[in-house]
Predict the 3D structure of the following.
Amino acid sequence: MGITLKEFSTRRKKLIEQMGGNSIAILPSAPVRTRNRDVDYPFRQGSDFHYLTGFVEPDSVLVLIPGREHGESILFCKERDITKELWDGVITGPERAMEMVGVDDAFPIGDIDDILPNMIEGTEKVFYSMGLDSQFDSRVMEWINVIRSKVRNGAHPPGEFVALEHFLHDMRLFKSAQEIKVMDKAAKISAKAHKRAMEKCKPGKFEYQLEAEITHTFMDAGSRSAAYPSIIGGGDNGCILHYIDNASELKSGDLVLIDAGCELDYYASDITRTFPVNGCFSEEQKALYQTVLNAQNAAIAAVKPGNHWNHPHEAAVHAIVEGLVEHGLLKGDINTLIEEESYKPFYMHRTGHWIGMDVHDVGEYKVGGEWRVLEPGMALTVEPGLYIAPDCKDVEPRWRGIGIRIEDDVVVTKQGVRILSEGAPKEISEIEALMS
Ligand code: GLY
Ligand code: MN
Ligand code: MN
């Protein structure tokens, strides 16, 4: 399960090929962050670093040097230390890194100031993502300055800094069979969690109690963390897009919007379901819910090779406006309403985003000023919604405070689209049957 050492090695080789000769790439691990006195946040390796190494230890640096005689992939990592390991667990150490991580060469991180300037010296291009970690940025500049200070001795500092993410993030955008398998498993776990939340929901429970059901399913299935803080918004709270307080009581007659997805083996899932707290949709809830579901179905149908990134969004917006006109929340000609963006007070976000190791994954949405064309292997979410603010004066009171989003994770295939997040009911009849 997960990604094989061979695939990590293939990724490094592919990046090295694109870098070309006379260059070096430098990629640090994520930093450990303090939560409060003596307590750190749980460490999560950086996605780029993990994508190229599978290595989960902090205080590490990956260096790639195309054509280097003693190996092109070099890892700097912590040295083994029996006392520390007694407290904090096993450290791989440079001696074992070649076998366990599959890199060609490895050195103690403590020696990096002595070794890395010599590796950089003589190269023309440094591939490095500037601006993500200011402390590490300073260290890179220090290493460059070591070389600059030796020009009179014939040292040659690099002439060019290139954004490492340019090639790397385009690689990450296209998911391999192994990656899709992990993402499929993550999505199935999350779908199960949403189903459990529907089964356990009752008026009088608190939002955090549904969060507990979700978290239980994630961890019980081997996911050690959510991919992002779960959103459990009952009633009006469902209209707050990034609501994470999850502290209110769930009331009969309200909807509850749950946006929650687990992370599994460094891959995210991202699912939203909206359902009635008491198991039964009201007429108004039904009308708007069906509108969002129609929008989602239209958007999913627009996910296929050859269509571009914005096609699913356009399809969703069309269905949303159709529904709003049908139910009298907007009045006028559908195309004009779309052109004038009259739907924006009710549908203010986009219909999806790339998904992968990061929930909002890397990859360009436009290339050369044009929407990116969808190709097999790209993974994205499809998540239209409708949010009628509790104080919205432009609609009848009966529509106010209804927040609905329906979100699934899909992959573009040769034939069209594959939905990964199946298993969480979304048809009105299915939800009502499950909750009855
Ligand atoms: N859960 C974050 C999002 O749906 O984009
Ligand atoms: Mn989401
Ligand atoms: Mn999403």
Summary: Residues 228, 259, 270, 353, 359, 383, 407 surround glycine (ligand 1) (CB under 6 Å).
